[in-house]
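Batch manifest line 133
LIGAND: FE2/S2 (inorganic) cluster
JOB: complex structure
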Amino acid sequence: MMYSEKVMDHFTNPRNVGEIADADAIGQVGNPKCGDIMKMYFKIENDVIVDVKFKTFGCGSAIASSSMATELIKGKTIDEALALSNRAVADALDGLPPAKMHCSVLAEEAIKSAMFDFAQRHKRDFEGLKGYQ
Ligand code: FES
Ligand code: FES
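JOB STATUS: finished
ARTIFACT:
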């Protein structure tokens, strides 16, 4: 079996799909190689992620990665979300095939993109955004 049960589960029954109309932060990233796009919407209160939703136009691994990533960061602080690596997302899914690791990178980048949006809106600085532009 190429994909773990967790990948199949999060692909066929993804968590936190959708949009948030009055989002406090929005992140969008695309993979230039495969053309897949991931968008994440956040509600943030006192630097805690109280809600997160995603829309992914992409492969099953990208959908599973976004679903798992949103589960992992819900209720966490911005700093904790920024510390989430694509490797941790893949591990939480019990692994991804090597050729599909870039799909989990999209999830990490979508979170960073959204937190960058939040930082800009509020003129804030976050340690985990160092070197991000
Ligand atoms: Fe997105 Fe394979 S490139 S489905
Ligand atoms: Fe490109 Fe999965 S094949 S994100």
